[in-house]
Amino acid sequence: MALLEIKDLVVGFETPAGFMRAVDGVGLSIGKGEVVGLVGESGCGKSATAFSILKLLPHPTGKILCGNIIFYRKNTATTQSGQAVDMATLEEKELCGIRGKEISMIFQEPMSALNPVMRIGDQIAEGLILHEKISKTEALKEAEKILLRVGLSGARDKLHSYPHELSGGERQRAVIAMALICKPQLVIADEPTTALDVTIQTQILELLRELQRETGISILFITHDLGLVKKFCDRTYVMYAGQIVESARTADLFASPRHPYTQALLDARPGDAHPPKTPLRSIEGRLPTFWEWEAGCRFAPRCPFAQGECKQPQILEQTPAAGVRCCRHMELERKNL
Amino acid sequence: MKAPLLDIQNLTVAYAARGSMLKDGKNFRALRNINLSLEQGKTLGVVGESGCGKSTLAKAITRLLDPVDGKIIFDGVALSQLTGAQLKPYRRQIQMVFQDPADSLNPKHTIATILSEPLEIHGIKNRPARIGELMDLVGLPQSYLQRYPHELSGGQRQRVGIARALALEPKLVICDEPVSALDLSVQSQIINLLLGLQKTLGLSFIFISHDLRLVRHLSDKIAVLYRGELVEYGPAEEVYRHPKHEYTKKLLANLI
Hints:
The complex is a heterodimer of chains A (337) and B (256).
Chain A: E1 2-15, E2 18-31, E3 35-39, H1 46-53, E4 62-72, E5 84-86, H2 92-98, E6 103-106, H3 110-113, H4 120-132, H5 136-149, H6 155-158, H7 168-180, E7 186-190, H8 198-215, E8 218-223, H9 226-232, E9 235-240, E10 243-249, H10 250-255, H11 260-267, E11 317-318, E12 323-324, H12 329-335
Parallel strand pairs in A: 3-8, 3-9, 6-7, 7-8
Antiparallel strand pairs in A: 1-2, 1-4, 4-5, 9-10, 10-12, 11-12
Chain B: E1 6-16, E2 27-38, E3 43-47, H1 54-61, E4 69-74, E5 77-78, H2 84-93, E6 94-97, H3 101-104, H4 111-121, H5 127-137, H6 154-166, E7 172-176, H7 184-201, E8 204-209, H8 212-218, E9 221-226, E10 229-235, H9 236-241, H10 246-253
Parallel strand pairs in B: 3-8, 3-9, 6-7, 7-8
Antiparallel strand pairs in B: 1-2, 1-4, 4-5, 9-10
Helix pairs in contact in B: 4-5, 6-7
């Protein structure tokens, strides 16, 4: 059952050089209890998509131009379970009731996501006090419980710490606690481990996965790192130049990538079998900016398989489980390239 | 056997401690008793997590930091004993490529100016010709010479960073996380460029990275640093396939 459905989302930004589209007709869905990855390189529109869900786009330069972001709410005093709302058109007042309570966010850089002059406990309890109308003492008790749950040793003392007194890993644990304290249905994690060392990164991902299994929440995981997606996500969407170019169950995506861009990304990292000191398969050229987007396939200028037909706009061919935006994918799959 | 190009013996580097706890004249020793060597034309990979001393090592070799103990022998000369003007000829021979080309290129200078600066400092004649060669070497069109860094993409900027490092025909280039700020599809281009340059110019590299898989791909030998100490050091394949130290095993287990 779907929890969130994004349809034909178009997002743009006002820039000194003119109006720029960042997201160009993105559709994606997240089921209940599902962990969905959204991968792509810088400027592909993955973060703009994620920020649109909670309408956290920079004001006033960022705008949702069209599309729907349908979210199925949980049962509360004012809403019925499963009531569908469109986040794209929702009033600010109603949005505030959803932000942090039903959909929350984990940001990339824990140091900038935390208020440096506020104690950890107060920051975590803040959301609960805001949404649940409970006393501060009670909220702090809950904060301590959740800090214990996210594996912060000495949780009681840490409640009174300031962010700078914590290590990078501890700070990210605190940010996760903040995101989970109101028991949301969906957590959007925007590169939650990019700023961390590799050994800490694994710990944080394992923690998130464990909490996800325990509570049955859904996670939208935004990253540029295909390796993380492989380890963490049930289903994955790959973005390039504002569009979804491929979607599939993660295992299928890695076993048999269908879009040339996905294939190239997977090959760009040296694998265990790759002979050392030999050239890697590289993707020529660079990421196109909005002004360089092609009318046809946007990856075509860098694609080794591009032909005349690639000059036509490409359609995302979809089945319920997967999708691919490449007119040559059938032929290329047959040739097993 | 030929003497190694770079021989580091018992290197210890310390920072003056500012914190109150260490006020009694004690320093923070960021590197302790490091022994490493690198042959001409080979690559030494240095891995470790933040704070392990990888960048301190680069700064010590380039003498941006003075070691408190130990020797750095480059091409048969003890660099750690030289001062000021004596060092200048060696500064040419050891160059650096930095992590973020957006930060390490002067935004107010054109690419031509950026590339000609090291040539001017070392009094090299016929600069335009050399700059043209450098652009060819790193695969950038000559027309980019009049551009500014912000007009280039990340990958192109890193090519300029590499061209600048090569301007003075160094023997050793220290690359400190040269691709970690770049997008994946561009990373492999830069890696391939570095591999090609090593072959054609016979360069020696020190490749510093947190990415063990990338380090293994590029290196002949790997050094693993942990909290300022060298915990493992050996041929790249050996370290990657049969790690001995617990920390290296942990790094490998966390490879994604």
